[in-house]
Automatic annotation (TrEMBL):
PROSITE patterns: PROKAR_LIPOPROTEIN. It comes from the Bacteria. Residues 200-215 have a biased composition (Low complexity). Residues 31-186 form the ABC-type transport auxiliary lipoprotein component domain. Residues 197-230 are annotated as: Disordered. This is ABC-type transport auxiliary lipoprotein component domain-containing protein. The keyword Signal applies. It comes from Pseudomonas cedrina.
C-alpha cells in the first residue's frame, strides 16, 4: 500500500497564503485625460497655428499617477496609473481643443509638416499638473505667442485650480478639465492674431547708377606756324 508523501507544515501554510494573495489581487486601473467634446473644425483655410514645442515638467514624464500629499510631497498611486504617455495625452487634448475653438483644420503639433507656414507659433510650458485625495487639481503653465515676423505678441503665466470628489477617477477628470480651460484661454489670446498683414516680399536692391567720370580738361593747342608773306625780293649776285 502506497502512502502520499507528507509535506512540512510550513510549506503547506506558505502555499495557502500564496493562493489567498492571488485571489485578492486587484488589477491596476489605467487612466487617460478627458479631452471633453471639442467642436469638429470645419474651415480648411482657417488660422494656421503651430502648437509647440509643449514642454512638460520632468516629474510628469512617467506612467505613475502621482498623488499630492498634505505636506506637499508626491507619492505614486497604488490603484491607478496613466495608460501611456501623459505628455502625448496633453498634446492631443490641447490640439483638439484649440482647433475646435478656432474652427480651423490648420492647427498642427510642432515641428509641423514640411512647408507649413504658421500665422502664430505657441510655445507652451506646463510646470505642474497634479492632485491628491484631499488636494485640489492644480495646473501651472506659461505660453508665449510668436507671430509670423518672429515677434513675441503675448506672454502669459496661468494658474488654474479644480475641485474633485477625492477618487482617482475624479482627480483625472479634474486635471482634464483644467487643460480644457487652458486651451480656451489660449484660443482667446490667439484669435486677434488671425488677421495679420502679409509680410511684404523683399524687393531686389537696385544698384546705384554709375557716376559719369568727369571729362578730362582739354590740353591747350599749340598755334600752328603760318608762313609770313612779304613783298621783299631776294637778289643773288
Amino acid at each position: 500500500m502506497m502512502t502520499a508523501p507528507r509535506l512540512p507544515l510550513f510549506l503547506m501554510l506558505a502555499g495557502l497564503l500564496g493562493l489567498a494573495g492571488c485571489s485578492t489581487h486587484q488589477p491596476v486601473s489605467l487612466y487617460q485625460l478627458d479631452s471633453g467634446s471639442p467642436a469638429q473644425p470645419a474651415q480648411t483655410a482657417g488660422m494656421a497655428v503651430l502648437l509647440g514645442p509643449v514642454v512638460v515638467a520632468d516629474y510628469l514624464q512617467r506612467e505613475t499617477l502621482l498623488q499630492r500629499q498634505n505636506d506637499g510631497s508626491l507619492q505614486g498611486s497604488t490603484d491607478g496609473r496613466w495608460a501611456g504617455s501623459l505628455s502625448s495625452d496633453i498634446n492631443q487634448l490641447m490640439l483638439r481643443q484649440v482647433a475646435g475653438q478656432l474652427d480651423s483644420q490648420r492647427v498642427v503639433l510642432a515641428p509641423g509638416p514640411s512647408g507649413f507656414t504658421p500665422d502664430v507659433q505657441v510655445l507652451l510650458t506646463i510646470t505642474r499638473l497634479d492632485s491628491g485625495k484631499s488636494q485640489p487639481a492644480i495646473l501651472d503653465a506659461q505660453w508665449r505667442l510668436i507671430d509670423r515676423r518672429g515677434q513675441v505678441r503675448d506672454n502669459r503665466i496661468v494658474h488654474l485650480q479644480e475641485e474633485h470628489a477625492g477618487t482617482t477617477a475624479s482627480q483625472v477628470q479634474a486635471q482634464g478639465v483644467l487643460l480644457q480651460h487652458l486651451a480656451q484661454q489660449l484660443s482667446v489670446a490667439l484669435k486677434p492674431l488671425a488677421n495679420q498683414p502679409p509680410i511684404a516680399e523683399a524687393q531686389p536692391r537696385k544698384q546705384a547708377p554709375a557716376q559719369a567720370k568727369p571729362a578730362a580738361p582739354e590740353k591747350p593747342k599749340m598755334p600752328m606756324a603760318t608762313p609770313i608773306r612779304t613783298d621783299l625780293e631776294v637778289f643773288r649776285f
